[in-house]
Every structure is written in structure tokens, then in C-alpha cells.
Amino acid sequence: MVSTNKEVILVDVRRWAKILHLNDNFDWLNLLYLLYKYPEFRTLYYYRIKKSNFIGFIFMHIIKFFYRECPSLFLYCDNIGSGLFIQHGFSTIVSAESIGDNCWINQQVTIGYSSENEHPIIGNNVTINAGAKLIGKIIVNDNVTVGANAVVVKDVPSNCVVVGVPAYVIKRDGVKVKELLV
User: Fold this and answer.
1) Which residues constitute the signal peptide according to the record (predicted)?
2) Residue 167 in contact with residue 146, Cβ under 8 Å?
3) Which of 5, 47, 66, 109 has the fewest CB neighbours in a 10 Å radius?
């Protein structure tokens, strides 16, 4: 209620509630349930509060006493779009330049630097499956699925599915292909 990021937090709550098949009656009840049950949501929630005003920041520290963050989920990103869903936060590091709206990140994902200033940009509606690595100054465009354990070190075009080490395209615009990333 006191956060300047209230609208983004509400989008997060509604997306998590939809994915987890929670009751749609009241956003505040879903928020309390998510804070109680999901440490991954708590980490995202605290990230949002840290980016808001001072009153929210103080309130966050009071809540953290009761609801701990996910200890192995790290969000080091200046701009995370609304609706981010983190299915399992175990051993997950998100260190992107930016992440678009409605993204989905699974466990043991690394999104990170290849050098001091070279980190990924993630578009909208991107799904990053378990164990995937996205490294360096790359752009993962909109509507992309990164397969489990894929290693992405080159730009990924929109509307693709990529898999493998190094990652390559297996589906583009709904059509099966086998293309190397350029």
C-alpha cells in the first residue's frame, strides 16, 4: 500500500496467483499467502520494495524478520519488468542489464557477466528453463524459450526455442529448424 511500485507488485501477485491456481478474490490475501509460502516470491517482493520509497524500505525490513528471502536466489538487475515468475529459486543468479515483462525463470539458472560491463538483456515473455546459462553482452529477444542446461552466448531472435551447448535454434515462429545463433 505504501510502495511507489504498487502497480508492478500487483501485476506480480496476479501472475503468481494465476500460475499457482490461487483464489482470485483478493490481491492482498494472495500477497499474504505468497509471502508466507514462497521464498522466491519474497525475494522478488523485497527487490520491488527496495526500488520504491523510504517508507516501503522500512516496512520491508520489518516483514523480513518474519518472512525470510530465498537464500540462494540473487537478483542483481537494475530493471526487472512486471510479472516475473521464479519457479524454484535454488542456486539462481540473475545479473542482467534488464528483464522484460512476464518472464519465467527456473532453478539453477545463471544470467550473468562475461566481464565487468557485459551482461544480458532479456526481452518480454522469455522462459529460461532449469540450469540454463545466459552469459555476456547478449540480447534475448521477446517470446523466447531457453531449454534446460542451454548455454547462450550469442543474441537470440524473437519467437524462438533454443537448446544445447552452445545454444542453437530448434524452433522459429512455430516451425522446426536447426539454426546456429549468429
Assistant:
1) none
2) yes
3) 66
Rounded CA separation 106/86 (Å): 6
- In whole angstroms, what is the distance from residue 114 CA to residue 106 CA? 21
Residue 116, Cβ neighbours under 10 Å: how many?
6
Contact between 107 and 91 (Cβ < 8 Å): yes
Helix axes 39-50, 27-37, angle to 10 degrees: 110
Give me the amino acid identity at 5: N
Topology adopted by domain 72-172: UDP N-Acetylglucosamine Acyltransferase; domain 1 (2.160.10)
pTM of the predicted protein model: 0.90
Beta bridge partners of 75: 94
pLDDT tens digits for range 18-35? 999 997 778 889 988 998
Q: What crossing angle do the helices spanning 6-19 and 39-50 adopt, rounded to 10°?
A: 170
- Cβ-proximal residues to 80 (8 Å cutoff; 6+ apart), any chain: 44, 47, 94, 98, 99
Query: Alpha carbon of 48 to those of 1, 81, 119, 140: distances in Å?
Result: 13, 10, 21, 23
